[in-house]
Amino acid sequence: MTMTQGLSLALLVVVLVVAVWRRMNIGVLALAAALPILVLSHVTAAKMYASFPGDLLVLIAGVSLLFAHVERSGALSAVVEKVYATVGDRQLLVPWVGFVLAAALSSAGAFSTAPIAFLVPVVAHFGVRYRSSFYVSELAVVIGANSAGLSPLNPTGASVLTAAKRLHVHYSTWGLWAVSVLVAALVVLALQLLDRLRQRRGAAPVTPAPAVTTPEHAPEGEAPAVSKAYLWCSGLALPVFLALVLFAKWDVGLTAMALVALLQIAFRPPERAILDRVPWSSILLLTGLLTYLGLMQNIGTMKSIEGLLHHLGTGVALILVVAYMTALLCNIESSTLGVLNLMMPLVFTAFLGSGQLFLIVCAVCVPAALTVMNPVHVAGTLIIANSAREQQNTLFRRLFVLSVSLSLIVPGILGLVAAAS
């Protein structure tokens, strides 16, 4: 490994440490770290920018804008209320409503933060009626949304696929999604059984905040769109989008943008309110990190890492180390998207050509998606904020213990399955 390659790797570690320490955007730090590498390596900026993931940027923005229309029009609220009305008082099914809704939205491409931010307060609203199911219902939303984010239509799943394509690696994208959703469902089922057992032993259930209301579809001071035509058209836009992407094989980002443009032209909701729903910070994180990783590949750092990793072998120890390291980083850094974009090039490099590659990808990605209820992350904070004030300290500890427990158990199980195959 040359001095410049070693420096690029060292700066990547510094970027991660500073991002966690100062709570800064990894993308900003990664682009700043690219400057000295460009100077020392004599790689042109134009060559580095060839790694800029423009397709992922369009995908994230397009799908986020489409979801914003679906939410603002009231179509999403109408579906949620209809589903809860259908479930009625069947308490055992209540947590699965949020799980299915969140997983469906993330699978269709909605950046997982969006369905979590919408559904967690909605679940708290219905939690007044379903008090004994509130805790598991909130967790089901978070776990379902993030785990289904490994869909190839979702920014997280698409970014994993992009890393694979850059290294000419192939794996089953929908297979990864299916494993992730299956593991997530088993975790939710286990949590539901454990929570019911706690309540039978006399433990008080976690309850929602007393004054929770359903979220507004527009910023304060602006009247949300109530046109039934807008509701129906935006609601139908999602199945049209899925049909065009899955069956006609149209580009995900451009298809979403086209539908967004039609909805905006036809119904003219406040454009600023729609644009505010795009996760610009995540876009900056993703584009900055991937551009820097592309620079590392241009100067040969990834090739040098590949050689070092091959000396270590591809056995069970290496699989477990990578899986646990990814889960640990996801507990520290709140962006699953950022962590997976950091780790997956190393995974694909280390296990290139391995017959166990698909299961190894599952062992790394699936646990990473399960730790999002950590109370220092946005999703965990939302759950706590929507719970009764007197229970928030206890809930903080429960969520932290749960996140750490999943990070210890799931990578080990999936890693051993991959190693044994």
Automatic annotation (TrEMBL):
Tell me which domain of life the UniProt entry assigns to the organism this sequence originates from. Bacteria
Protein name listed in UniProt = C4-dicarboxylate ABC transporter
InterPro entries (UniProt xref): MatC_N
Q: Which UniProt keywords apply?
A: Membrane, Transmembrane, Transmembrane helix
The membrane spanning regions, by residue number, are: 29-49, 56-76, 96-122, 174-194, 236-266, 278-296, 308-327, 347-370, 399-420
Q: Where is the Dicarboxylate carrier MatC N-terminal domain?
A: 7-147
Keyword S-adenosyl-L-methionine tagged: no
Species this protein is from: Nocardia albiluteola
